[in-house]
Amino acid sequence: MNERQPGMSLVVQTVTRWLKGFIFLYGVYVILYGHLSPGGGFAGGVIVASTFILLTLSFGRERALGKLGKLMASELDSFGALLFLLIAVLGTAIGGTFFLNFIEKNWPTGNFHLFSAGIIPLCNIAIGIKVAASLFMIFIILAVIRVQEVRGKRKLITTEKRRKER
Amino acid sequence: MVELLVGVFLLFMIIGALIALETTDLLSAVISMGAVGAALSICFLLVGAPDIAITQMVVEVLSLVILIRATIRRDLTTIEGDRDFFGLMATLAMICGLLIFGFSAFLRLPPFGSPAMSQSFQAPARQYLNCGLKETGAANIVAAVILDYRGYDTLGEATVLFTSILGALAILRVYSRKKKQ
Amino acid sequence: MIYAMCFLLFLIGLYGATCKKNIVKIILGLVIMEYAVNLFLILLGWRTNGQAPIMSQQTDLPAFTATAVDPIPQALVLTSIVIGLGILSLMVAIAIRLYERYGTFDITEMRRLKG
Questions:
Q1: What is the pLDDT averaged over residues C86-100?
Q2: Rg (CA), chain A
Q3: pLDDT tens readout for residues B95-142
Q4: Which residues of C touch A156 (CB under 8 A)?
Q5: pLDDT above 70: residue B178
Q6: Which pLDDT score is estimated for B179?
Q7: Residue percentage of chain A with pLDDT more than 70
Q8: Is residue B58 a part of any domain in this protein?
Q9: CA torsion angle C63 C67 C72 C73 (round to 10)
Q10: Of A6, B51, B120, B178, whose CB neighbour count within 10 A is largest?
Q11: What is the pLDDT of residues A83-93, one digit of tens each?
């Protein structure tokens, strides 16, 4: 392994560069078609998060965080949860019941099409954003921070800072 | 047939779990957990739950990555032995008691292959299967249940996930607060 | 029989969580318990010769209702799996903090935790 270059070897980086878009697209597909086929917001969100985790593992921390920063992930996390809550509250505002499916069911194309299930695709998107952002944040929190001896005391330190101290 | 296959995979899971708990090397233990999770995913697929199978597989991969990245590169990865002898024996006796109790309790459950839903006509699951497509428009009844009939569950799940991340952040944050002072 | 094997898996997880000294082994035991409970709930909903509760355009509704497996445990377990990942991350965070504090994963070495 090359010491100066962060991340893994050239083979892994090339394969990642080719595959990351397809994995991301598959995650988005699983989220969007969650009401028609197996999958849904949970599974699709985890697949989308695994794209960024693959980037982090193969290219190192800086490259992946450049694409989706920690602050951005935190914002997206809150945004997904709030979007889900907003959809639920809109049911109250429109029909008087929390979590009311207020969009007409077979509108506009009939059953077994992408937009046919009222609020369920919207909820799936909200859940997908939330799960993807939160799982990526879990990974960033847990995997990038390390224990290191600094002046005789054990401290938690990020890989970025460790590289600077060298 | 399905019962036999699930039984074989369950046996595989039991052996994998024993290896994961008894081996001294932490990396082998974590990888055995990966095998257990994969077998669990196949079991879900066999008993007609493709949603769960996909989610379990992906979550398993992610949790393995987290476990390996976060815990393996420590100094002391092999710790031998159990806790003290008396406590171990007491716990094992309690587990054996639970085992006998559980075996007698499982005799009273409905047999494998005929759930409570198929015996009662007022079961909510029957209602969901019958009217799910008409009432929600979703062809995947599981999605209809988690996001329409039982939306509160999913809201609670989002809250729990959010709180667990907050907890992890708060636990690991002491270092950065010390640095500022 | 299958249920009993599930319960055996649960008890193996319980043994790991109560008898092991290494924190990572305790975490693995808790995860095994969670797996066993998830599998038990899903198995409760299985019907002989059942099919997955997902319709297609050719599906006949009465036949579908008569053969599809129970969707409610699946919905509950789908939620529970993702929560399990959150719990796992919280436990790993606690383990990292304990390692940073005490320099070991061995819980018998952590004197100050004892009452």
A1: 86
A2: 20
A3: 888 888 888 888 888 888 777 777 777 778 888 888 877 777 778 888
A4: 96, 100
A5: no
A6: 52
A7: 69
A8: yes
A9: -170
A10: B51
A11: 888 888 888 88
Position of tokens 């297609």?
A: C56
C-alpha closest to that of A144 among A12, A45, A75, A56: A56
Burial of A20 (0-12, 13-18, 19+ CB in 10 A): middle
Distance, first Cα to last Cα, chain A: 18
DSSP one-letter code for B45? H
Q: How many CB atoms lie within 10 A of CB A151?
A: 5
- pLDDT at A148 > cutoff 60: no
Determine contact: A2 vs chain C, CB below 8 A.
Answer: no
Domain count, chain B: 1
The pLDDT tens digits of the residues spanning C40-81 come to 998 888 888 888 888 877 777 788 888 888 888 888 898 899
Element (H, E) at B65: helix B50-71
Strands (E), C19-108: none
Q: Does B59 touch chain A (CB under 8 A)?
A: yes
CA-to-CA distance for B6 and C47, rounded, in angstroms?
14
Asked if the structure places residue B10 within a domain, the reply is yes
Predicted complex ipTM: 0.88
Which residue range forms the structural domain that includes residue B33?
Answer: 1-77
Q: Which chains touch A (3 or more CB pairs under 8 A)?
A: B, C
The shortest C-alpha distance from A91 to chain B (Å) reads 11
Question: What angle, rounded to 10 degrees, do the helices at C23-44 and C71-102 form?
Answer: 180
Instruction: Tell me if residue C21 falls in helix, strand or coil.
Output: coil
Give the pLDDT of residue B3: 85
Neighbour-count burial for B24-47, b at 16+ CB within 10 Å, e otherwise: eebeebbbbbbbbbbbbbbbbbbb
Return the CATH number of the domain spanning residue range C2-113.
1.10.287.3510
Do residue C18 and residue B56 have CB atoms under 8 angstroms apart? Answer: no
Report if residue B179 sits inside a domain: no
